[in-house]
Structures are given as structure tokens and as C-alpha cells.
Amino acid sequence: MRLTSLLSLIPAVAASCYHNTPLARRASVPSYGYTATRGPLNWYGLDPSANVACATGTHQSPIVIGSSEISKVNNSTVTLYIPTVSDLEFENLGTTIEVPLTNGTLVVGNHTFTLAQFHFHTPSEHRIDEEYFPMEAHFVFSDEGTRINPSCAYFCSC
Description:
CATH class of the largest domain: Alpha Beta
Radius of gyration: 16 Å
Order of helices and strands: HHHEEEEEEEEE
Number of domains: 2
CATH superfamily of the largest domain: Alpha carbonic anhydrase
CATH topology of the largest domain: Carbonic Anhydrase II
Helix content: 10-25%
Structural class: mainly beta
CATH architecture of the largest domain: Roll
Number of helices: 3
């Protein structure tokens, strides 16, 4: 698994926030955010007609995950491949830093998903046992049938 090489990108992501024009902020400010009244706990309230899925907390951010609800998967049934790359483009979307990276794969059983991109949220969008984390990374995979398999990694300041 090449998660170590992805984790080594975190300092570069943080440093890139202050470097060059590709990371210039968007002209318009998003209507949502990650703190206070514009944060995940109030996304539904910002626009109830558009954000109805945010009110349930089961399939759309923010999701509260109970550690007792997490199912464990046998390591032999999951294979994650993230390629080593020498050049990446980081895009500042105003609410997250997104990195398109299209030649990674996630195999779960006999089903293969292709990595489309990964991005970061700080603080985390989702909670585990009601706890937010300083940062969350989303790895967005899809298959040929456009089935999406987002996977998350949480980072703590332990």
C-alpha cells in the first residue's frame, strides 16, 4: 500500500496554499464553510431545498460514524494502489485543496475502482463517535458503471 507516499504529500499541500496562481482563491465565495454557522452541522439550514441529503447524516456530509458501526474487512480482499508521481497539480477550490490523480486503483473483492482525485478538508467534515479531526482526506474512486466509492482517512494531532 502506498499510503505512506500520500501522507508525505501533506506538507506540500499545506505549503502550496501560499504558492503561485493555480491555488488562487475563487472569485466567488462558497455559501458553506467548515466552522460556526456555515459549518457541516448547519449545511442543511443554509439551503434546505438544495441540501436535503445533509439533514439525514447517513449518505451525505456531515456523517456521524459510530465506531461500533464500522465493519472490518479482511486485508486479503482489499488492494489499494496509489502510483508514485513526480509532478502533481493542486487546485484550490476555496473550500478544499483537490488533486486530480487518475491512475490509482482500489480493488474490493472482485470489484475494481479507479481513483479520480483526492482532496482535503480541515477540520474534518465527518465525525467518528461525535469527534471531529483536524484534517480529513477523501479519496474518490469510481468504476465503469459510474458507481462512486469515496474513502476517507482521518488525521489527528496525537
